[in-house]
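Module 6 notes. Inverse folding takes a fixed backbone as the condition and produces residue identities as the prediction. Think of it as a translation problem where the source language is geometry and the target language is the twenty amino acids. Below is one complete input and output pair. Work through it position by position during the lab.
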């Protein structure tokens, strides 16, 4: 069935980035305009390397403790393709190894190590929480439901195909806000255990566009995300 091929195009639409996330091959479309990107300084590149050295082993430990059997060999990379916006995203390679990718403008945008560590912890949390397969399952259910309804009504193949696409998109977005808050919560733990301040790190939300609480939006309001971080951090 056609809905199976649709799943191959789906990626995690939830990250602590300027707006949205996607795979290494094709970042997902953003919900709101992104600010003009800039390149990082040498000091900011060094800051990134330092944070990677501290956060990556903590993320692996949390992954192995919380998700036995999951591939926890994180690979943290820089997406240096020209013209990329400020963005961080999580995906997996063909072998199933988790990838945490950061564009150069994102590395330049964070104001301190706490913010960068929180972004990194958040992206690792998406993998640990299994958000990509969960999103794919939601998309499959939406594609089957809406595509099936269209077929039952006697619609032609073109209309059925359109219904499959719409159903997959709606299904994929159905719980994306919850996925973001889950990643914020676990990202708070990872950030803290790596020796950084997650509350200070969550201040990153104050310099990015607020998506609001839109129906089928991919991200929750920034204030809700900051509140989640503060609540979790208070219990650590």
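Target side of the pair, the amino acids:
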């Amino acid at each position: 069935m056609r809905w199976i091929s649709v799943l191959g195009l789906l990626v995690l639409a939830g990250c602590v980035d300027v707006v949205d996330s996607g795979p290494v091959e094709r970042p997902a479309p953003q919900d709101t305009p992104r600010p003009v990107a800039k390149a990082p300084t040498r000091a900011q590149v060094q800051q990134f390397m330092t944070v990677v050295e501290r956060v990556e082993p903590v993320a692996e430990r949390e992954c192995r403790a919380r998700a036995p059997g999951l591939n926890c060999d994180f690979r943290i990379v820089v997406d240096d393709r020209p013209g990329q916006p400020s963005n961080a995203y999580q995906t997996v390679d063909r072998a199933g190894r988790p990838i945490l990718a950061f564009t150069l403008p994102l590395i330049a945008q964070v104001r301190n190590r706490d913010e960068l560590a929180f972004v990194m912890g958040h992206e690792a949390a998406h993998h640990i929480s299994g958000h990509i397969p969960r999103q794919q399952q939601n998309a499959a259910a939406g594609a089957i439901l809406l595509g099936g309804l269209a077929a039952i009504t006697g619609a032609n193949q073109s209309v059925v195909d359109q219904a499959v696409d719409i159903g997959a998109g709606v299904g994929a977005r159905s719980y994306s806000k919850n996925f973001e808050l889950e990643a914020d919560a676990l990202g708070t733990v990872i950030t803290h255990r790596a020796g950084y301040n997650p509350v200070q790190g969550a201040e990153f939300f104050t310099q990015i566009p607020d998506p609001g609480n839109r129906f089928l939006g991919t991200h929750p309001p920034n204030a809700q995300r900051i509140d989640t971080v503060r609540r979790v951090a208070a219990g650590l």
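Reference fact for the lab report: Residues 1-35, 139-151, 159-175 have pLDDT under 50 and may be disordered.
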